[in-house]
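Title: Request for sanity check on Glycosyltransferase involved in cell wall bisynthesis prediction

Description:
We are preparing a figure and want to confirm that the structure record we downloaded matches what your pipeline produces today. Could someone re-run it with the sequence below and paste the raw structure tokens into this thread? We only need the token string, no images.
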Amino acid sequence: MTVLWGVSFDATAMSGVVVEFIKIARTFADRGYRVHLDLGYDIKADKGRFFQPYREERVPDWIALDRVDGVAEISGYDEEFVAGTLEAVRRDRVPDTGGVTARLADAIVRTWEDRGVTLVMVENGTLPENVAYTKALYRAIAVYGARHDLGRYVLWRDHDLMWQSEPDKYGSFPYPATPPMVDSPHIHYFALHEEAKRRTLEWMPHLRNLDVLPNTFLPPSRPGRPDFRSHHGIAPHERIIARFTRIIPQKRVDRDLHLAALLPGTCLFVAGDTEENPDETRRLRLLADELRVRVVFGGVLEPCESTGDGFSVRDLLAHADVVSFLTSYDYESYGNPIGEAIAAGVPYIASRYALYDTVYAGFEAPLLDISEHDLPTPEFARQVSELMTNAERRAEVVEHNRKLGTHNREAATALVEDLFPPAMGENVRLSVVLPVYNEAANIHDVLRSLLDQDDIGPEAYEIVLVDNNSTDDTVAIARRFAESTEVALHVISEREQGVAPARRTGMEFAVRRSRERKNPGERFYLVSADADCRVDRRWLVELFAAMEEDKAAIGVCDYYYNADHFVGRPRLWDAIQRTLRCRAVTFSLFGGFPDGKGFAVEREAYESVGGIEIFYQLRDGRFVNHLSDDWDFGIKVRGSGHDITYAPRSRVEINPRRVNHAIDEVITGRAYGTDGIIVMRDIRPEAPERAVDLTEEEALQAWEFSIKDFTPKNVVLPILLTPSFLDSDAVVAFLGEDLADRLGRRIAEVKAEMSVVDFVPIHSYKTPSYRLYLEFRDEIFACLRAAVGEDVGYPPPLPECFDDVPPERFAEFVKYYCEDRESGEAHNYFGNGGVF
């Protein structure tokens, strides 16, 4: 049993910090972790719970409330000691905690040993409320992590760093008395947003493992109790402004009272501990009487995730018309009430506090500009009233905020799963990596095809879906699949836009986890799939069988198009079929190269060449990642001496939208780019897809672009990378002995001339491939006609610049043409990518 130990420096059972812990911990509980939570009663002195036993604290039943064993017996450690160290910090003096720190660290380690802890979550540990405990925690993490070789097993998240909440309380920057954050091999730090990350690095520039992990707002898991209104004496017709917060001056609940006074028929419901600051509660009650405002002080509600019998925050949200967060300017960071409103589908209002735009940029809500108006204005009240009474506007705002909130939640969950990945099943032999970007329309069918695989058990493979910043429901659909299938389906994210970074992230995720299995020496395969292409039912088992039988480093799939999608388009269909027939011949001879639509690579070979490399090009003055990472990866593998095998019965059906997109570009003479720039584009059609056939001229142009791209890559390039192919009887039979001999000698000459040892880097293969194609094009096409059929025809016409070149100098000028880096003419001629 794996065990998660959580510790909160908040020292209270009902707080946003604890709620956020529960949400992240749920991810690990779902993986089988046993979750223990120390609420921090023995850490923070000002909450009055030091050494107090747990009594009626309510947390979900899958969490065991726990604490460090024997902490009350540590000599010198008590509330007075902690309060004294905090006072020293406030005066920028470093308190002496040496003996206590050592004893605390020993107690923490002993407790973790006893519980069998394997993962630790620290919430708000950087706040210098208890310098001794923070230092002890760092010491315990180092000792325990080294003893058990746990790697980066600690998730350390700060909700309220010194500059975000009550800055006057903790001393001044650069916080000389606060324990510095340790750049530990065992800790991954998280800030709530980019501004917090920036300020953290301003204070601790040496940190190397710091990410942004925003709060994760979860939708309600149960309906609100219908008796909430009647229990609190709120009439059915009354509108409710909900305020759930601590009742302290910094929260500015008085603003809500003034707002309610401008909204007749409205009840203000304030959820919070009225005894935390009795003077503030008394002041608010008097103000409510003065303004003649209907206000209900509802007391402390249970956390949103509570499963207890009492009323919860979610019960309030189910009845609220709007959630308010009119807080002080310099007090808040994230503002949990806003997030809970978004998750529950309730509109919210807020003050524009210092970090509001950092956290909630893009969300829609009436905002009170407190730099100009300390109290709500009639115009602000009008906006709030419209949000509560205009059903159409309300629904529009709720849906807009829901989509943004869902994306943020999924990104946060994916980040945690990526950094703390779930264990891989002992019998998993293949990890299918699926990069996705806004594929809600296709992802159901694609996942269904990946899951409905014949003759391979669900325990033998997994799916890693890599979300590449989707803004639609792609991830939500995938997560629903994950809940209902026997095949493990993991959802992670990659922030850098592009299929290449996403594919690499997914494969690295699988590699790391595969190393931890009981039989790490067993051949393990990383498999690439595309998010808009469906695979056949035997796709995976045939690919696996070919890899196992041939012991190859890479396995290449076959692909095809569904003829039903091209009914009434015979010229286009003919061009597609000719290309695929050529592919079948050359792949049977040379094995082909990886195509993102479907290939597998053995883990050891993947790592031996450094994995997928991302190449960058300049487009419009900006660096963009190069599209053909799959081909470049294949070249690295083949150029490093590894074998590639072709699995013709492992088949992928190509989405016809790819052809429609490429055809339109081919007809304009651009194909996938110009001047050598080949980058990812969104190929989903904005207008209705082209459904008419090509003209004869367009069909010819499409074929020529396709075959010009195909031939250098699939005939010339394999021989460049593996000259021993020319010793194969099948290849000699295809080329003929004379052509095979001359091609081999010419390759050696070009290699020597270019001083290239191996044709491995991305631009080392294009020039010689293009040169050899142009020099041998007539003879290669003759070979293709003989092997594939006469309808392959003859090579497309040469560029006009060769019209005046004397025949005896043709090879010389081919070299100049293919090495023309200024105009990119050769790249444009070859189309920067095929059509089919």
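Thanks, this matches our download. The chain has four domains: 3-212, 228-406, 408-614+629-655, 706-830.
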